Amino acid sequence: GGSLKEVLAKKIPQEREKMLGIKCLHGDKKLGEIKVSNVMGGQRGLLLLMCDTSYVDPNKGIFYRGIPLKEVCAKLPRTQKGSKEGTPEGAFYLLTAGKMPNKKQAKAVTTEWQKRGKLPDYCFKLLDSMDKRVHPMAQFCAASAALNPESKFVEAYNKGAKKPKYWEYIYEDSMNLCAFLPTVASVIYCNIFKGGKGNRKLDSSKDWSDNFCNMMGYKDSGFVDLMRLYLILHADHESGNVSAHTTQLVGSALSDPYLSFSAGMCGLAGPLHGLANQEVLVWLDKLVAAIGCEPSDEQILKFINDTLKSGRVVPGYGHAVLRQTDPRFSLQNAFAMKNCKNDPGVKLVTRLWKLIPKVLKELGKVANPYPNVDAHSGVLLQHYGMNEMKYYTVLFGVSRALGVLPQLIWARALGAPIERPKSFTTDFLCKFLSKS
Ligand code: AMX
């Protein structure tokens, strides 16, 4: 059989054996040393986590299951009539199974999510009762956690399911959660920004992205294709980032996927993580207000220097790992060049790409002067009329499910234990240092 679950059922025993072998044969080998600065610096630079769904190479960019992101986008099967993009469902298959799906396999995920997507009434009630001042991300986290009565894992665990079987229930929960997310996210959007109006029913002729856009009130097929691309690009980024790692950490306590994902999303809501995409638009709005939509190079350079002089960073530029233009930026720009190259925001972002790296390089301290994913996403969403910046991180969150949930399935499949790093007191450190 070729269903995703069957592919997993075949692959998991092999991977288990491989891991066990590595652990038995090489468990004592050293991967590096721990410096005080690593510990005091947010664990930066330590090889502490294993993650096979994706990998970020400083120079070569982002890989999903070993395939460069650009190639992922090019090769994902086009399952929707008239669409020029692959589907996020296909990306989920790739990240979970470790293999590029064929058209039938990608389509099968779409069909499964249509079937599983009927959101329980109590979740609608919860969302409808939310005060509009509760941030869209806080609503998203609350609803994700509140879906936990749906958990097949909890049910099986309480009935005494055995550890080697855990992944099957985590898989079921992950599939159901993905299926629920477009409805959850679109209800939040419509409740906050459209006075509660909007369609709440999944249409079985539409894929995951099309249903999501449709329920938010967007019918333009160009916007749906943008959403497909957006949801593919933001899905996975190794396992050390805050949202992925939090999901893993909470999942390691055997909290169910609804709770684990919700915890990860609480982290995504921070301004140093998922919230950064709205900062870029705020800055671009200021730029346009100060020097207009088609400023000269000199005017732009002066504006950038003023930003830096005021002690602020240029938002959308730089990265903790990447040392080249973020492929997610390039892929969005390629989409923009094909679909809306005359949009004033797109033109401005494209011009800035030519100007900002030079300025940042001259500072001499910026490790990566090139644009990241957030430098582009906002102007594209605005092109199609989605102006509610406060909502953008929810789109990121819906996408991130496609990465962190496969990571969770695999963690249980491989029997990853509860995470529990050891901490030490400052006193201990001082005594240790005085001896060394
Ligand atoms: N503009 C101005 N200065 C910058 C800069 C930028 N875009 N990026 C880095 N620098 C500065 C840093 O502030 C730091 O200065 P300091 O020593 O005076 O404090 C110096 O360059 C060295 O920093 P770094 O090693 O290059 O970056 P980092 O790994 O510490 O941080 C990041 C990475 C993304 C937080 C940083 O580049 C930044 O603040 N960028 C702007 C904000 C942004 O775009 N965030 C979104 C990140 C993408 C994402 O993950 N969602």
UniProtKB/TrEMBL annotation:
- Identify its protein family: Belongs to the citrate synthase family.
Transferase as a keyword of this entry, yes or no, is yes
- Subunit structure, per the record? Homodimer.
- What residues of the intact protein does this structure contain? 36 to 471 of 541
An annotated GO cellular component of this protein is:
mitochondrial matrix
Q: What is this protein called?
A: Citrate synthase
Q: What's the chief localization of this chain?
A: mitochondrion
At the top level of its lineage, which domain of life is listed?
Eukaryota
Give one GO biological process term. carbohydrate metabolic process
Name its cellular compartments.
Answer: Mitochondrion matrix
| Keyword annotations of the record | Transferase, Tricarboxylic acid cycle
Query: Single GO molecular-function term?
Result: acyltransferase activity, acyl groups converted into alkyl on transfer
Q: In which pathway does it act?
A: Carbohydrate metabolism; tricarboxylic acid cycle; isocitrate from oxaloacetate: step 1/2
